[in-house]
Amino acid sequence: MQSIWSMVLKRIALGFVLVWVVSLVIFAMTQILPGDAAELRLGQDATPETVAALRHELGLDQPAIVQYGLWLGRLLTGDLGVSVAGGATISSLIGYRIGNTLFMAAVVTVIAVPLSVTIGLLAAMHPGGRIDRFVTSVTLGLVAVPDFLIALVLILVVSVHLGWLPAVSYLSGSENIWEALRALALPILTLITAVASQMIRMTRAGVLNVMNSPYIEMAILKGVPRRRIILRHALPNAIGPIVNIIALNLAYLVGGVVVVETIFSYPGLAKLMVDGVQNRDMPVVQACAMIFCSTYIVLILLSDIASIMSNPRLRFPK
Predict the structure, then answer these.
(1) Whole-angstrom Cα distance, residue 125 to residue 147?
(2) Helix and strand element counts for the chain (H, E)
(3) d(Cα 251, Cα 255) in Å, to the nearest integer?
(4) Residue 265 region, left (φ>0) first, then alpha (ψ -120 to 50), else beta?
């Protein structure tokens, strides 16, 4: 057990290092973006003296290393800073938006994960059969289709031609669960279609890869039913790659929904980041990017730890 906890602690330490490296990259990338928040905030008619005074007030005239140190120090204390475009605190801007993004991600996860694992196992139970060929063909086609194209097709068919669901997923906060789900139906369906295909393919591939193992062949020779072999023997040993692909898709749901939220005008965290880029509001962009990247690293870290716990071969490498 000591070796397991040692590996887990090493992974956690590596996660902190990655978060620090990501903070450096995010700060450097936002510094080289064109535009000036002070000029954008004051408008084109502002005098150079007024712009210089506002830049000094916002700390934009300080060296980059000083700005990074101040930003990182505030970040470690939980202070996300103030929006240079509007003057509001970033925490207040992120507050309800991150709740909207997490709500949509949770709904997609609850539907997509069990559905994908079930379909992947069903395809693996009948390799080469009609179900397997159909699932493989459909998922291969969906993997090649970008999410924005899926969203546009759904809007064209379901909203424009059929008029069943709204094309704009606006939430005022006073909706009940049914009204919220109806408003989010199209973006949820888009995300499920985008992420489920990858999880289905990985589940099928992982199970079939384990099915070629000698102990599985021995169980087949003994006459053990194929369903029992897959559920009791193959799936537990294939859970590592499946958990990894699920974690990657969950990270995408939190941080990679920029296009989907923009298309459907959904007031989520990704839409806030897009607005921050348009307004040259670098503190907002930095805060959103850190949330996205930190969530991605945490989910990958959890999947890595889960793989170590579930697979003894990873705990004792040769």
Answers:
(1) 29
(2) 16, 0
(3) 6
(4) left
Q: Hey, what amino acid is at 95? A: G
| pLDDT tens digits for range 129-171 | 888 888 888 888 888 888 788 888 888 888 888 878 777 776 6
DSSP 178-216: HHHHHHTHHHHHHHHHHHHHHHHHHHHHHHHHHHTSHHH
Of the candidates 79, 67, 80, 77, the one whose C-alpha atom is nearest the C-alpha of residue 30 is 67
Residue 117's closest CA among 211, 212, 243, 229? 243
Q: What is this structure's pTM? A: 0.73
Q: Which two tokens stand for residue 174?
A: 């006073």
Region label for 252, one of left (φ > 0), alpha (ψ between -120 and 50) or beta (otherwise): alpha
Q: Dump pLDDT digits (tens) for 237-256.
A: 777 677 777 777 777 776 66
| Contacts by 105-114, CB closer than 8 A, 24 or more apart | 105/250, 105/253, 105/254, 105/257, 107/181, 107/184, 107/188, 108/188, 108/191, 108/192, 108/195, 108/253, 109/250, 109/253, 111/188, 111/192, 112/191, 112/192, 112/195, 112/196, 112/199, 112/249, 113/199, 113/246
Q: What are phi and psi of 170, to 5 degrees?
A: -95, 135
Question: Which of 258, 103, 111, 259 is CA-nearest to residue 175?
Answer: 103
